[in-house]
Structure formats: C-alpha cells, structure tokens
Amino acid sequence: MTDWKLTFLGTGTSTGVPQIGCRCGVCCSADPRDHRLRTSALLEANGYNLLLDCGPDFRQQMLRCGSPRIDAVAITHSHYDHTGGLDDLRPYAYGDSPLPIHCSKDVAHDITQRLPYCFGMTDYPGVPRLRTSVFRPYTTFRSGPLDIMPLDIDHGRMMISGFRIGPVTYITDCHTMPPATLDAIKGTETLVINALRIDPHPTHMNLQQAIDVINAVRPQKAYLIHMSHHFGLHADMAPTLPQGIEIAYDGLQITATTTQTCIEL
C-alpha cells in the first residue's frame, strides 16, 4: 500500500465535542478544530475505500466529505459511538453483494442481534444489506487490495480491535497496549492513537500514556484522536506536543507523503 489517503471523519469521544449542556471553553470554542464528531476515519488506497468504524454521526460525516464510495467497513468494537451508524450504510449496501463488515466474533454477535434486519435475518425490503466477516487477532486478512492485521487492544474492561494496514496503524479506545500488539506495530510509519484527556481514565489512555506508546513505537508521524472536551483547546495543546505528534481534527486528510489538507466543514 504505497498510495493512500486517510480522512479523519470524526475525532471525538462518545459524547462528541461540544458536549450537550456544557459551557466550558472548549465546548464554546469558535475554532472548528475543537468541534469533534464521534471517532471514525476513511482509508482510501489502491482504488479501494475502507471505513474505520461507523458511529452515530456517520450520515453527517459522509455528507460533508462528499459521500465517497465505501467498499467495506472495519469495526473496532461494538460500543454505540463506533457502530451507531450501521443502518445509515443504506446508500452503500444495496444490490446483489452485501457490504462486508469486518469485525471480531463478539462484535459480529452484538451487531447482528442489534440490527438483525441488516444482516438478512428478516425478509424485509428496503433495508441495507450487510454481512459480517469475522477476523482473529494478529491473523492478517484481505479486504479488496488491502492486507489488514487485527490487533488486540485493552479497553479497560474488554478487549477490542485495532488495525495495522500496511504503513498505517489505527488504534482507538485503548487503555493498555498488550505486548504482542506493541511488537506487531513496531515499524509503522503513521500511527493514529487515542488520547482522551490530560488526567488518567479507567478505560482510555490519557495524553501522557499515548505519548509513551508513541515513543515506544517511534512512527514517522502520530495523530491523536478520540478526545473529550477535557483534552483542552486545539490551539493551546498543539504547541505543547513533542515533534512528530499532531492533534487530528475532523476533516483532516493525510497521505502517504504526509501531505495534509482539510475538507471544508
């Protein structure tokens, strides 16, 4: 995978930013980089489009990025902020071939129980046609032209998935990095990783923990995602980060040459 583009569709935690009912400085910020939909990304490579998670803001995210084609979806875990938009895949999931949803066995169980009509369990017209494609940790599978290695990620009280896709590693909702995963992502060129806030949290890494992982992996570039309003203002936090670490924001696009652009929100 030598020619790729990653679009950050959303970079916020489960509540999004601004958070409902909050009047803090971050939630009231006029800087669009502080406005964060729920975390999701679109990887475009070799003429193939892979959606990474499909949260409740999916429809809005697609409308504002031009609604590109989606060939497959990879799900990190079944929490609603990462799967709440599966029904909105309707425009991409009609026709003879169901849209593949790459996920773990546990996620496959959860989403088919939650949305049985999307997975052919009921005979109802006009619904999205999805199919689960179950993967196993550290066993590389192929999606179109992409070789994808699922990674075990400790989300505090549950094990979820991250993905290494060629030179790109995408990790969200991590609290502790298993040693096998740390070994598997050594040498990655671009690391996307969560950093919820400054203070410690029981199920997500804070900023310092994310920096520690980045220092251990030593990618060429690292981008922080899944921030809450407790992370701070983008303009205040960005200058404090070590070289090579950047705060991702909604609409940011990065490429294999680390060129950065931004879609108009």
Describe this structure in words.
By secondary structure, the chain is of the alpha/beta class. The chain has a single domain (3-251), classed as Metallo-beta-lactamase, Chain A. It has helices spanning 58-64, 80-83, 105-114, 179-184, 207-217, 234-237; strands at 4-10, 40-45, 48-52, 72-74, 99-103, 130-134, 141-143, 146-154, 159-165, 168-170, 190-194, 221-225, 245-247, 252-255, 260-262. The strands form 2 sheets. It has an 8-stranded mixed β-sheet. Strand 8 (146-154) and strand 9 (159-165) form a beta hairpin. The longest helix has 11 residues, at 207-217. It starts with a strand and ends with a strand. Residues 37-229 form the Metallo-beta-lactamase domain.
List the helices and strands and how they pair.
Layout: E1 4-10, E2 40-45, E3 48-52, H1 58-64, E4 72-74, H2 80-83, E5 99-103, H3 105-114, E6 130-134, E7 141-143, E8 146-154, E9 159-165, E10 168-170, H4 179-184, E11 190-194, H5 207-217, E12 221-225, H6 234-237, E13 245-247, E14 252-255, E15 260-262
Parallel strand pairs: 3-4, 4-5, 5-6, 10-11, 11-12, 12-13
Antiparallel strand pairs: 1-2, 1-14, 2-3, 7-8, 8-9, 9-10, 14-15
Largest sheet: 8 strands, mixed
| Approximate shape | globular
- Main-sheet strand order equals 6-5-4-3-2-1-14-15
* Protein structure class: alpha/beta
SSE order, one letter for each helix or strand: EEEHEHEHEEEEEHEHEHEEE
Q: How many E-type strands? A: 15
Q: What is the CATH first-level class name?
A: Alpha Beta
The overall pLDDT average reads 96
Tally of individual domains: 1
The helix tally amounts to 6
InterPro entries: Metallo-B-lactamas, RibonucZ/Hydroxyglut_hydro
Domain Metallo-beta-lactamase: 37-229
Pfam families: Lactamase_B_2
Protein name: Metallo-beta-lactamase domain-containing protein
